[in-house]
Design brief:
Blueprint (H helix, E strand, L loop, with lengths): L1 H8 L23 H18 L4 E7 L3 H16 L3 E7 L3 H4 L3 H11 L4 E4 L2 H5 L6 E3 L21 E5 L8 H13 L5 E5 L7 H10 L5 E4 L6 H6 L3 E4 L8 H8 L4 E4 L4 H4 L5 E4 L4 H12 L2 H18 L2 H21 L1
Parallel strand pairs: 1-2, 2-3, 3-4, 5-6, 5-8, 6-7, 8-9, 9-10
Helix pairs in contact: 2-3, 3-5, 7-8, 7-12, 10-13
Length: 338
Amino acid sequence: MLTTLKTHLAQHFDTELLNLTRDRDYVAGVLSGTNLVRTIVDMWRVLRTAKDFDVVYLHSSFVPAVTVVRAGLLMAAARLRRSQVVLHVHGGPLPEWASSSARRRLVRAGLSPASAVIAVSDGIRSALPSDRAHTVLNGVDLEQFHPSYSHVDGPPTVLYVGLLTRRKGVVDLIEASKLVAARGIDHRLRLIGGRPDEGGEEEEAVRSAAVGSEDFIGSVRHEEMPGFLQSADVFCLPSWYEAMPLSVLEAMASGLPVVATRVGQIPDVVSSEVGRLVAPSDPDGLADALAELLCSRELRERLGANARRTATAEYSLDENLGEIRRIIETVVDQGRRA
């Protein structure tokens, strides 16, 4: 998404991508010496780079407290160079996490350097105590992600895309797949994703729950994702919490029915004419929803066609990028008039 956004913004602004991710293994969101040094180094990199730009655009979660502080410090470093800052917030558990007055004060303090804040869902927007916050729902590239309309022989395939961690409901999905198989419903379960920020223990917890029939693909490049979606029959994301996951929109644009949990903005997107919603942490309910779709190709095709139409009508990437660009243009204008 950031690469796509940079390409789009480069048509209107001089841009540079400052990559603050790390190849080395570390656990994000915890207070540690490694993460403290990492934040100090990243502040210096932002401080050094921001001097040449009017706006610093930061994409970050805002949970837990350590991440709030880190994001606030990075924004503060940009403001020291008199750059405006646009913070793009993701992270599904923010509304629940920021329910206490102490945490809301921390969130308010963390947001203070931001010139504008973009939330990917109304739920996250409501948890951001700032009059500078905007909701901009995720958008999907409708040319890159599209149905194949070709039938693949063999049992229907359920596809999961996300990190291999229990909070994404992957263990629930594996258990649901076992229950579906016990009913005599033949299917394949494919799992795309790699190690989560929590570290290797979470990934191992997921893999240890598998029975051997699952197909663990590992991490794949984003440009390869359309092919995996086109070869699937049902998309499933049974997360315990989410904001507005892009993977759901990519699946819908690819003409797949979606089985997901009633969390975040997902119920506003996945209607009964697009897929099925279940409660989080409910393998039995998940099995029922999957079984209904796996047993009826006609139902899968009807819901998948509706999903494509919904994605086309309401979640175009062009509109999403246009909204982000307009917010940045407003911030640039405000900064130059200040």
